[in-house]
Amino acid sequence: MNLAAILPELILTVSAIVLMMVAALGRRMTPVTTWASVAALIAACFALLGQPQSAGALFGGLIVADGFGAFGKLICFVSAAVAIVAAHGWFERGSEHGAEYPVLILFASVGMAVMVSSTSLMTLYVGLELSSLASYVLASYRRTDERSAEAGLKYFVLGALASGILLYGISLLYGFTGTTGFAGVAAAFARDATPSIGLLFGLVFTLAGLAFKISAVPFHMWTPDVYEGAPTPVTAFFASAPKAAAVLLSTRVCLEAMAPATDAWRQIVIFAALASIFLGAIAAYGQTNIKRLLAYSSINNVGFALIGLAAGTATGASAILFYMAIYVVMTLGAFLCVLRMRTADGQPVETLASLSGLSQTRPALAWAIAFFMFSLAGIPPFFGFWPKLLVFWAAVGAGYYPLAVVGILGAVIGAYYYLKIVKIMFFDAPAEPYGKVRAPLETALIFLSALVISPVGYFLIGPLGRLADNAAGSLF
């Protein structure tokens, strides 16, 4: 057994178990578990560099060590570390930040690592549930906050429903193929020119369960409420690492397990992509809460990533990897700025109206938010434009010109609410200024994120593009 191929997962698992024991000593251990968890995630990232990418199938074909999985793990681990750092600064003023918070994120990270490496329907489900169970607790982390409790309950109930749908789809695929391995499922789809009704139902239910996890329309209903109610650092985590892991898992399932049935699942993916783009763009128009607006932004961005999946090619898979890497940077940067929206006495503020005239009271914060909004909208010369261009290129390369044209139209419509935030900050009369927040590490992260999504980010096209191409090539 080549344990070196699963070294990142081993590091995180052992660290989570040990730190769970440390967390039992009480709230005073919070700084210890926080920074130890960040160190464990950094160590896992370094372990990825030495991980044998050609180890192939492991544990009887349950997981695989390849470039695609390594790329996804890197995105998830970095996002999780940022979420832990952000929470340490956000919760420290109150009494609710417990030592178990970073431990929950470590367990979720193990689940996400299993997700992006799964080559079996069984490990797919185990990884997804390990990540989800930790997420349910994180959503309701502020026990004294009614909104947080409501968010956790909604997420749990709807997540359980989605898990049931996914499990039903998996059982159908197993029943009609006799295997849970992706290779066996693909062979069953390839056996007949027209897949049986049972296989098609299994395909539909499996994709429906995965669509919930990536909050794609029409399974998006939980996203705005959970994003608004959960503590802001938790929302930043939900919008980045688990979403990226679920998108990459869906990509692997479609391009490996269901590759021979591309014509069947492509219809579903195209519908989910366009519906997510337009609902995410239009539903955000009337939002007055910045976290709800960013929730619809995440739905909108998932739609663009799914355009790359609809292409069904190596170019499309590479575009998805590139898109999710830059999307995570933009989203985390935006939420780190939202964490700075506090009153003078340290209470969080989430209304768009509070951003009025921010350029006059906090110009640096206003410019940082403007950078992230322009990039999320995909407006050149900001780097957020390039991933959108890549997924449209992938669609055009596969011959889906109408899909690319409609996607571009959706991007234009969605740009309105991003520009609306910029207009509020730079052209409206100043509102009550935010309180000063001393968090040098978070400031450095905001600056670094803003630098990456600025025109300077175009220097990353070469190295990041090659990494994405190599990772995507492992699926084909």
What does this entry look like structurally?
By secondary structure, this protein is mostly helical. It contains 19 helices and 2 strands. Strands 1-2 form a two-stranded antiparallel sheet. The chain is globular and about 65 Å long. 57% of the residues are buried. The mean pLDDT is 88.
Summary, kept brief:
This protein has 476 residues and is mainly α. 72% of the residues lie in helices and 1% in strands.
Key terms:
476 residues, two-stranded antiparallel sheet, 72% helix, globular, NADH-quinone oxidoreductase subunit N, NADH-Q_OxRdtase_suN/2, quinone, oxidoreductase activity, ND/Mrp_TM
Largest sheet, spatial ordering of strands:
1-2
Number of strands: 2
Measured distance between first and last alpha carbons: 25 Å
Q: How much is the radius of gyration in Å?
A: 21 Å
Share of residues in strands: under 5%
Number of helical elements: 19
Unreliably modeled segments: none
List the helices and strands and how they pair.
Elements: H1 7-23, H2 30-49, E1 56-58, E2 63-65, H3 67-91, H4 101-117, H5 121-139, H6 146-177, H7 182-191, H8 197-213, H9 223-229, H10 232-257, H11 262-282, H12 290-311, H13 314-338, H14 358-361, H15 363-377, H16 385-397, H17 401-427, H18 440-453, H19 461-473
Antiparallel strand pairs: 1-2
Pfam families: Proton_antipo_M
Membrane topology: Multi-pass membrane protein
Subcellular location: Cell membrane; Endomembrane system; Membrane
